[in-house]
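User: Quick sanity check before I run a bigger batch. Here is a single chain. Can you write out its predicted 3D structure?
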Amino acid sequence: MAPEQKQDGEPRPIQLYSFRLNELEDWVKQLGEPKFRAKQLFTWMYKKRVQAISEMTDLSVSFRNKLEEIARLSTIKEEMRQVSKDGTVKWLFSLWDGATVETVLMRHGYGNSVCVSTQVGCRMGCTFCASTLGGLIRNLSAGEVVEQILTVQRFLDQEEERVSSVVLMGSGEPLENYEPSMAFVDIVTDGEGLRIGARHITVSTSGLVPAIKRLADEQRQITLAISLHATNDELRSSMMPINRAWNIEKLLDAARYYVEKTNRRISFEYALIGGVNDSLDHAEKLAHLLKGILCHINLIPVNYVPERNYTRTPKDQIQAFVNRLADLGVNATVRREMGHDIAAACGQLRAQKEGRL
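Assistant: Done. Predicted structure follows.
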């Protein structure tokens, strides 16, 4: 693995958290070290969760010195942390180049879920999301995504708890940054690492059809979440520009292909926006669209974004929408709102920090 490059072309130290275990084994052998050193490194990084190479005391001094010269553990820095009344915690991290990303810890009765970012900003242009307001700055490396999880896990270590599930639903489109996103999945699910089960990993996409099919062919046991949000192409294209490249028909064909290849249920995300897509007629059309697809619908009351001027669907109308879907035999739940008092939605804290909200 070649050193990652700074924007000015200068090489920067290799990021150890970007290596899968087998890649780390190859790399340490290139350094003239025995293969087992990689497993030692993995243990220090993910089980003992040290924050400095100097703490890896069963490695020789000469090897540690070599690592200090050419590699780094940490490349992110906590800039801000907010804690909600409901226990949700949101971090704003700065990266090596000064860019910022967000990570959210959500506490549920069934465990601790972490939402990670995979890009700095986003270029998908979805009109209900604050992440897109500044466009896409750059992709994150696998290690920068891994560090988000490790920071949260160290925070939970103080409470003797652990990260039980991960959602790639923060800033960015994970399937556009495909290789680092999948490397992240491999690293955090590794039995020698954090050992988070693949079935407890959810990858969200706005609808990149070729990447969905690629993911299907790899037959990973993760959960795929597809942002749908509309029942016709005209409305979806106005909300999600990606629909102009891959419309609803193409997207649902890819969803069927995914289910066929993996036998895994898909989660369809549907943001309820007052007066836009939340009528009973929309519910009926949604049920018709998804008929025959192994899936679950996750209804999301839209977060207020000042630039978009969307309004939230009233609670009684949300329930009526759910009831109509149930009448039509469709499984749907309403996402529990968390961190509402700390700007926990995607992109909000970063936008506040940069003065855009």
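The chain has two domains: 14-72, 77-353.

User: Great, the batch can go ahead then.
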